[in-house]
Amino acid sequence: MNNKNPLVSFVIPTHNRANVLRDCLESVVNQTYKNIEVVVVNDNSTDSTLEILEEYQNTYDFFKFFNNDGKGVCAARNLGIRMAKGDYIAFMDDDDICELFRIEAQMEPILNSGFKFNFIISSFSIFSKTGQTIKVYNYLLKTDSVGYTVRWLIKRDLLLEAGLFDTAQPNIEEVELFFRLKEKSQIYFSPVPVVKVRESQVSLTKDNDKMIKGIQRLLELHSDKMGWYEKNSWLINLCKKYIEQQNYENFKIYYEQLAKDHFRLNRYAVVLSYKIKSMLPARIYDRIYSKLEGLINNRNKAYPVKID
Question: Cα dihedral sign for 68, 71, 72, 78?
């Protein structure tokens, strides 16, 4: 490894995004940090993606791509990591855009610390179809955003040691990997936004069944590694998903888990009011909230909540 200028490999899975892929690739190949390679994994695209990739491979000697035959994003990322030659891996999604200073900014704490840090997580921004910044995510740890791999710059050996992405994970595979990584990592959180994430990617409604299975598996594997707030945030997410399916029996199961875990702060009332109330039939919400009030008004007592 070049201790002054380590090689960084971008790993970019892509599938039928020819309309936005050039924007992503231009932001990557024009980085101010010059010791990079770009590894794109084409996941069986049927549009003009292949022609674009061939053009870039013929133009840049540090650019290469591989085909993955429709095996999915986890397998595509894993292939990219294995094929990469860099000391560090930077992930990108094919519809997002890097700031040109991204790698320079993320390498700075690594170099300044004498390579103490092996995992950098940076902030990111959301941009609209017109290119305007909608929101900057400059908080550092949040259960639904820490898994955005576009935020990561990470030692390649660390990924290999952790076992890469789990292709058996139905959803939120980035979050599942994060829990395996953080036990082995020296993490540095940077408030500097280094990636622009396209609005459609953030707001896209995901398959509820896959999301439910993904959260359930995440809790089965890693609930012992989660803090109190983090675990209960995922349980609330499950509650929301079951409400969207109008599956009130399963909603009740996970709601009661929240109560047994003494999740009884005013914050919970706010979550119910703004995230859950609008989805629940009034008769069910009224029964829940009347019992919830007992928890809020008696914070120092541990009342289990039962929904009749």
Answer: negative
Domain end position, chosen among 188, 203, 218: 203
End-to-end Cα, the chain, rounded Å: 62
- Cα separation, 175 vs 218, in Å, equals 8
Does residue 160 lie in a domain region? yes
pLDDT tens profile 149-188 = 999 999 999 999 999 999 999 989 999 999 999 888 899 9
Please indicate, yes or no, whether residues 154 and 21 belong to a single structural domain of this protein: yes
Task: Report the chain's C-alpha Rg in angstroms.
Answer: 21
| Domain stops at, among 187, 203, 219 | 203
The CA–CA distances, whole Å, from 85 to 1, 53, 63, 157 equal 11, 19, 12, 11
In Å, what is the CA distance from 193 to each residue of 36, 99, 186, 243?
20, 8, 20, 34
Q: What is the pTM of this model?
A: 0.82
Single-letter amino acid, residue 182: K
